[in-house]
UniProtKB/TrEMBL annotation:
Residues 194-216 are annotated as: Disordered. One of its GO terms (cellular component) is plasma membrane. It is a multi-pass membrane protein. Its main location: membrane. The lineage of its organism: Bacteria, Bacillati, Actinomycetota, Actinomycetes, Micrococcales. GO terms for molecular function: transmembrane transporter activity. This is Putative MFS family arabinose efflux permease. It comes from the Bacteria. Residues 9-408 form the Major facilitator superfamily (MFS) profile domain. InterPro entries: MFS, MFS_dom, MFS_Efflux_Transporters, MFS_trans_sf. It holds the Pfam family MFS_1. The chain crosses the membrane at residues 44-62, 166-184, 223-246, 258-279, 291-310, 316-342, 354-376, 382-404.
Length: 413
């Protein structure tokens, strides 16, 4: 088969891999009011769907990273798309709340090693001059997923119901899988003669040219990796507490329709895509990662203020302002975290190191929706929920300040 250089085809499957896992959860969030009514569940039970999803993803990232280091790119990418399709298909089965919980868990498993394998593909198949820019594009896959699900699920649910929509959406990961099989067999490794690793593509692999310039990976994981994981956890709490309940907040508190409520999440997704690509370009110019994390944390705090203002006044303009600030800040954090890893971790350790940081993020993702569901189900309602999110972002701001103060020490970004 003719070999090709890294181009739009490879970038599209990297973006698709990041987007496939979250499709189910964003679709459920966009139709949350209909699901809560149909299944007769509480807001906290609905939040448990996201908690199960992200808890499975966190455990998977923490435990499967080293295993992923020893598996081929094609094997891991195939697993991502097949499990994502299975999760969507199971959600379409009329089996009640328990079946939906299992589907949510499978969706989390599909996200367990996505960052690790896509980061490794960047290191081993993409020239160094393109990598950081490509990080922004491929990490925007989460927001592309949010955009697609938030627009399509409410519209299709009107025609075929939310279960039928999940079944139709299951075709997307399968189509991406077919594209992946073709692309990964045509884009070669940059240095195929370095340390061999099992590969179903028929090649050996190893560290890229950037890896040779990176410091040797320490035994276990460095303090910097754990600090990034902690920041990802705090940010993740706020991100998913907002993402999962944003359409419900718009529908219940500001009297938006189901479709317009879904549009709030879609707008956040559009802004998030732009933000991730933009922040990646800023990182590519050599900007300090910790400094960007501080800026993003402060902007996220401002977004919480706008959510509280919308809750207090019922002004739609404040809600849309909050949506934009949320998309521009909290949704852009992962690209900064992954870019910092690409600057300092060799490809042989990329899956496991990415797994630690991603596990931190998914731990936060698991905590956020359940906590928010419990708070808004209490007497404090959404007001108490947004205040709690503000406290979380304040803690992430303080951690970013600490990281900035240490940025000139060895190993800092």
């Amino acid at each position: 088969m003719r070999k090709e250089s890294a181009g739009p085809g490879l970038l599209s499957i990297l973006l698709g891999a990041v987007a496939a896992g979250p499709l189910l959860l964003y679709g459920l969030s966009a139709t949350s009011e209909a699901i809560i009514t149909d299944l007769g569940i509480s807001e906290a039970q609905f939040g448990l769907l996201a908690t199960v999803c992200f808890a499975c993803a966190a455990v998977g990232n923490a435990t499967l990273g080293r295993l992923a280091d020893r598996r081929s790119d094609l094997t891991l990418m195939t697993a991502v798309f097949l499990i994502a399709a299975l999760a969507l298909g199971l959600a379409g089965v009329p089996g009640g709340y328990l079946v939906l919980l299992i589907a949510a868990g499978l969706s989390g498993v599909a996200q367990s090693f996505t960052n690790g394998v896509t980061n490794r593909i960047l290191l081993e198949r993409v020239p160094a001059s393109k990598r950081i820019g490509w990080v922004g594009v491929k990490q925007s896959g989460v927001q592309v997923s949010q955009l697609v699900a938030s627009l399509s699920f409410p519209l299709l649910a009107v025609l075929v119901g939310w279960r039928g929509t999940a079944l139709l959406t299951a075709l997307l990961p399968l189509l991406l899988l077919l594209l992946t099989w073709r692309i990964l067999r045509t884009v070669p490794l940059l240095h195929p003669t370095r340390e061999a690793r099992p590969s179903s593509e028929g090649s050996t692999s190893g560290s890229s040219d950037a890896s040779a310039e990176s410091p040797a990976a320490p035994r276990g994981h460095s303090a910097a990796v754990w600090a990034l994981a902690a920041f990802g956890c705090l940010n993740g709490i706020g991100v998913q507490a907002t993402n999962v309940y944003l359409p419900l907040f718009a529908v219940r508190e500001l009297d938006f329709s189901l479709i317009l409520g879904g549009a709030t999440a879609a707008v956040a997704g559009v802004v998030g895509v732009t933000a991730r690509i933009g922040w990646a370009r800023v990182m590519a110019r050599g900007t300090s990662g910790p400094l960007l994390l501080l800026i993003l944390a402060l902007t996220a705090l401002a977004g919480v203020g706008a959510f509280l203002g919308a809750d207090a006044t019922g002004w739609a303009a404040l809600l849309w302002t909050a949506v934009v600030l949320h998309g521009a800040s909290a949704l852009g954090v992962s690209v900064v975290l992954m870019s910092v890893l690409l600057r300092s971790i060799p490809s042989a350790k990329m899956a496991s190191s990415s797994g630690v940081v991603t596990a931190g993020m998914f731990a936060g993702f698991a905590i956020g929706p359940l906590g928010m569901g419990l708070l808004i189900s209490s007497g404090g309602g959404f007001t108490l929920g947004w205040m709690a999110v503000g406290v979380v972002y304040l803690l992430s701001t303080l951690l970013a300040v600490i990281l900035v103060s240490r940025r000139r020490r060895p190993g800092s970004a």
